[in-house]
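Work Package 3 (structural annotation) set out to generate three-dimensional models for the target panel prioritized at the project kickoff. During this period the team completed the workflow that converts sequence records into C-alpha cells, so that structures can be stored uniformly alongside our sequence database. As a representative example, we reproduce one entry of 320 residues exactly as it appears in the project archive.
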Amino acid sequence: MELALSVQNLGKQFGSFAALDAVSFDVKQGSLFGLLGPNGAGKTTLFSIVSGFLQATTGHVEVLGIDIRNVSALRGRFSILPQDAEFQSGIQVLDQLIMFGRLNGQSKQDAERSAMQELERVGLEDIAKVNAQSLSHGMAKRVALAQSFLGDPDVIILDEPTAGLDPDNARRIRELVRNMKGDKTVLLSSHNLQEIQDLCDSVVILNQGKVRFDADMSTITQSDNLSRISVFGDVGDDVGQAIDKLPVVARIETDIRGEDSSINVHFTFGANDTKETAMKTVLETLLAHDVVPRKIVEGASLEQRFLEVTDGQFDGASST
C-alpha cells in the first residue's frame, strides 16, 4: 500500500496540556481522507505539525515518505489551505498567485501559467486582475483553493474549505475535491459531517487529543435500517410528514441545502416487510409530492458515529 501520509505516535505538549496524545494513522495515496473532531480535539495542532509549522513533542510524520522535519524537500509536492486563509489587500489576485508559485520553485512564466490554469479550474479566470480586497467571501475561498492547487501538488490539506459559503459555492468546491480522487491525495477537515461522508473514503475522528475512530467510510456507515436519499425538489414539511407516517418508517431527518437536499430514512420492518418493498413505498411517496430521488445511499450517517465516539459533542453543521 502506497502511503501519502503516515502519522506515528504523535504527541504535542503545551506545558502540562497534551494537545495530541499518541496519534497514529495512515492515508493512502489517491484517497480523499476526512479528519473530524469537536472544537479542542487537536485538529489544528495536528495540521500545524503535518504542515511543518509546529514541531511535535513525540512521534513523527512522513509525507510521501519524507520526514516532515525536512519539509523543504516537499516543495511543490505538498500544499495546505488553512481555514482562515487571507490575501493581501490592494494587490491583484493573479500577482499574488504568481508570488506563491514562485515560492514553490516555479519560474515566473510557469507560475503565471499555473495561476491562470488554477483560476480557470475554480471558475474565476475573469477576476485575475481584480484586487483581492474586492473579492466576496465565496470568491476568496475559491481563490484560496486555486492557491492550494498551484504547481500540481500530490498531497493537499484542506481545512474547512466550504465553511461560510452559500450552497452554490460549496457545491462547486465539493465537485472540485471529488474530481481529485485517484489523482491527488486530499486530507479534508470539515464540521459538515455529511460533506465528509459524501466525499471521503476513510475518516479519523479525534477527541481530546486522541484517535477515537479510524476506519474506511463503508465500515463506519454500515446499517441495514437506514438509507439516505438525495433528492431534487421542494422538501417541505408536508413531504416529511407524509414519509414519517408510513408504517415502515421509524423516523426521518431532512437536510435541505438547495441542490444537495437529502432525507435520512430510518426503517422499521414488520414481519412481511423487506428493505426493497419499504424503499419502494418511500420513493412512491416522494414522487407523489413531486420530489425526485437522485441517489440512494444505504447505511448509518457519519454524524451518528461521530456522536457515539465523542460522547455527544458536535458543534458544526448537521449531517442528518
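The CA atoms of residues 97 and 115 lie 6 Å apart.
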